[in-house]
Amino acid sequence: MKLLLQAVEKYRALILEAERYIWQHPETGWKEYATSAYLEEQFTCLGYDLVRADDVTGFYTRIETGREGPEVLILAELDSIICPTHPDADANTGAVHSCGHNAQCAALLGIAVALKEPGMLDRLCGSIRLCAVPAEELLEIEYRNGLKKEGKIKYFGGKSEFLRRGYFDGVNLAFMVHTSTDFAVNRGAVGCIAKSIIYKGRAAHAGGSPWAGCNALYAANCGINAVNAIRETFQETDLIRVHPIITHGGDMVNAIPETVQLESYVRGVSFEAMQSANAKVNRALCGAALSIGANIEIIDIPGYSPLVNDPGMIDLVKDAAKLAFPNTEFIFHDAYSSGSTDMGDLSCLMPVVHPYAGGSCGKSHGNNYEICDAEAACVTNAKWQLAMLLLLLENQAARAKQILANFTPLFTSKEEYFAYVDAINSAGDRIVYREDGNAEIRLGG
Predict the structure, then answer these.
(1) What is the pTM for the complete model shown?
(2) Residue 53 belongs to a domain
């Protein structure tokens, strides 16, 4: 273990330089061109052969120990969020790493450079896959819908899209460390269904003849209020979260808004909870449109699966913490987070863990977020992940094999998994108005 720690410490300056560069070049999902190119150059200079994603950002590389054993996937996320009021936000796009993904990428580079040091693979068996993956933050739904229509992606999240493309074929276990205020791990996290909602009315002069129109903005307001009115029907144990935003509210002030667009998630701790809540949300949204004679198009898209951190992998991160930073408190939260991550998609098929490294300050996704302790967020983080890797793959990978023996996947194959999530897809106008004055509602989802 001492050799691992020394290898990371040797390249401390390189790791911290990467954190600052990526912080200063924030890009949202599927647009991480500068970030991906920067890391590709760093990995290539280290002598790694890269498999670059076709037509999109991101890449991976494989490291063979020369000894038989399972394959471990270590990930870092390339994308930023959007928070225009953050002092370090990009002036043109509003993008900023108020999510800490920049520190993840720096830590991944630290792992990569450490594994190139002499003797670093001597105690390990099996293989290691390092992956810089795009598009974890599930935002800009309309933009991603466009990429999907163009055939560039099928799934909005980077990990599910990479999984579909076969970039994770052959992987047995996976982990990724997110940045937070403390070194910690949860039981897991909620999943989500992503929604694009379009209220359709009729335009008319807002002053001269408003009665000739049908106000899509009023329908959207009614829809949001209707969703708020059903919140008490959600069970606390299901961790349901619904949080719509209006992305287009009309075209000009002196016209009755004809089209109003919203985006939202429906989050929940299980597939069943998500789909049950989503049906209620759709009913509320449709009822609002019906109440004033508007129509509504609802596009339901598979977001992220609920994350279940494998118990054996949770124990792994605890033990690795004792090796990497024995004098720092490590926290286990025996609960599920109400945030979502596409690590949940991988957890349906293999043992995974998604713990947190300390080093950030301020509100996650807020305008005061920063990496206030880059040493913890990047350098100590890299040491911790290498300790996890060592514990998994030393001694003929005994620990990895034991975790795999105790694991029961939710789906037996990625094909079965994708067939299930694809069934969540639903689109189209939800109301058919008949000439006799009646209407038919198609709730879907």
Answers:
(1) 0.93
(2) yes
